[in-house]
Amino acid sequence: MSAVSAETRTPPWRFAAAGAGTPALVLAALLAALVALPLLGVFSSFLQAQASLETLAHLSTTVIPRAALETALLVALVTLGVTVLGTTSAWLVAALDFPGRRFFEWAMLLPLAMPGYIVAYAYTDFLQFSGPVQTWLRETFGWQRGDYWFPEIRSLVGAAFVFTVVLYPYVYLLARTAFLARTASMIDAARSLGLSPLSTWLRVNLPLARPAVAAGALLALMETIADYGAASYFGLQTFTTSIYRAWFSLGDRLAASQLAAVLLLLVVVVIVVEERTRGRARFFAAPNAARPAPRAELRGARRVLAVVGCCIPITLGFLLPVAILVGLMWPTLADAPLDRYAQWLGNSLLLAALAAALTIAFVLLIAYAVRLAPTGAAGTAVRGAQRLMSLGYAVPGAVIAVGILVPLAAFDNALDAWLKSSFGFGSGLLLTGTVAALLYAFLVRYFAVAQQPIEAGLARITPAMDASARSLGAAPLEAFRRVHLPLLAPSVAAGALLVFVDVMKELPATLVLRPFNFDTLAVIAYQLAADERLGEAALPSLTIVLAGVLPVMLLSRAISRTSAHGAPAL
User: Fold this and answer.
1) Do 502 and 292 contact (CB within 8 A), yes or no?
2) CB under 8 A, 24+ apart: contacts of 563-566
3) What is the C-alpha separation between 251 and 271, in angstroms, rounded?
4) How far, in Å, CA of 427 to CA of 81, rounded?
5) Residue 317 in contact with residue 110, Cβ under 8 Å?
6) How many domains does the chain contain in total?
7) Three-state DSSP class for 401?
8) Which of 174, 160, 161, 158 is closest to 89 using CA atoms?
9) pLDDT value at residue 419
């Protein structure tokens, strides 16, 4: 009886992998070391004894206080903004019925296609003193400089506005799913206790959506901390901009490494605080049989207010910036250096395609190793390596770039010195400043982006399929090729598309690690905008936006399909 129960608990397809414990353990160790290397490279700056103490003391009195203050203020404003905007818009389309609701359900996600630094360029041109808005005000009312007050876009508040209108879809996406999970019984119970609609929203609906709202706000927070382009363009001194100034302006690699280490510790603290704040709270979806809460149908002026409320974030986060960029690009399009543009586009597409292929290959390897991993030390090691690699998305690109550059430069210098002393010739820089270093950074940064859809797809493949393949004599690799891979094709495509678009938009790591004279659309857009050549920066900026619209539309269709089957709209 015990033998039967043991066999029932352990799927038959796992026995074939039981003898592969040692290879799985070696694989897990190698991959864990691969991801840990950039982080160890960052913290190695504290091992340089005296120089480390002197530099850190100087940073503690000059750079770190202001960087910590501006980063904290920016993060606080953005977190508040995305929480309010994302939760409100999610509630409008999930709980209320008004004209255009189905359109707004997916259109609310369009700002995800807009990189923050590109929106910063557009709004700066639109709202600065010489821009069309202030020019119109002066011409209309006869004002001169000093006669009126106008908010300064290149400021901490301006940066918080830009990040809010671009990043609120993170909160909207998760909060809308949570609001759709409401059931009629929840609302009926609250109303039977005498709660008003407002009290029901505050005491029932909002607490139930809290985990989703917190998760979305945390994603927006991470993106804000990791940003370099918009913060640098607005002249802010955050931790990320301080890292680049220490590295490029001051030429102090040690100071940059130590600032990166402080930023990494800050990210870890934020994650721990969020988990501790959540405590033992858990969020469970309602059973499929539960009757969803009906949407409240709006009439009269409330309909108009709901439509206007949905139009505002879409307009501010997508439509207006795109219109500004088109207006900037049009006069300069005839003089655009199309040959150089083609080179920048080719570099971006090459990097994005290689990074997507490499990341997908690693994700498939690890995900399938976890599926086949036996119990015991080997299985624990493989699963631990997977969790470690998924942490890369929480690490800012600046930290990863510094962490990769430090050990690669040390390796190149050591190899060059050894070759010169032993054979009389040097090797130069073999890894530093190459495409390989960039791909390594993208692998560490975006592993989790591809992991999520592939893991979800792999979870839908039942162990019975593995057992059937093994009973027909198929080895694990053959079963993966003939059974799992065809079933995972949509998930693989989704993961590859997400990584492709993220790499097209990526700026911080590319600025540090790219080879000499190897520019991407993101780098060129940033450099042209920094030189106040916004018209020339519009073309590469719009190209990046167009590359991001397709996956956002596919994501919107998938969400609409899911909600159509899961929670019928009234």
Assistant:
1) no
2) 563/105, 563/177, 563/180, 566/180, 566/288
3) 31
4) 51
5) yes
6) 1
7) helix
8) 174
9) 83
R_g (Cα) of the chain, nearest Å: 26
First to last CA, the chain: 53
pLDDT digits (tens, 9 = 90+) for 427-438: 777 778 788 889
Kindly state whether residue 415 falls inside one of the protein's structural domains. Answer: yes
Domain assignment present for residue 419? The answer is yes
568 φ/ψ sector (left φ>0, alpha ψ -120 to 50, else beta)? beta
Angle at 71 between CA 527 and CA 47, to 5 degrees: 90
Chain position carrying tokens 């503690």: 60
Q: Could you tell me the residue range of the domain that residue 448 belongs to? A: 370-496
Q: CB-based contacts of 14: which residues, under 8 Å, 6+ apart?
A: 372, 374
pLDDT digits (tens, 9 = 90+) for 264-282: 787 778 777 766 766 555 5
Average pLDDT over residues 193-212: 67
Q: Is the pLDDT reported for residue 556 higher than 70?
A: no
296 in Cβ contact with 97 (< 8 Å): yes
Establish if 430 belongs to a structural domain. yes
Tokens linked to 33: 């070391």
| Within-domain flag for 394 | yes
The full length of the chain comes to: 570
The CATH number of the domain where 482 resides is what?
A: 1.10.3720.10
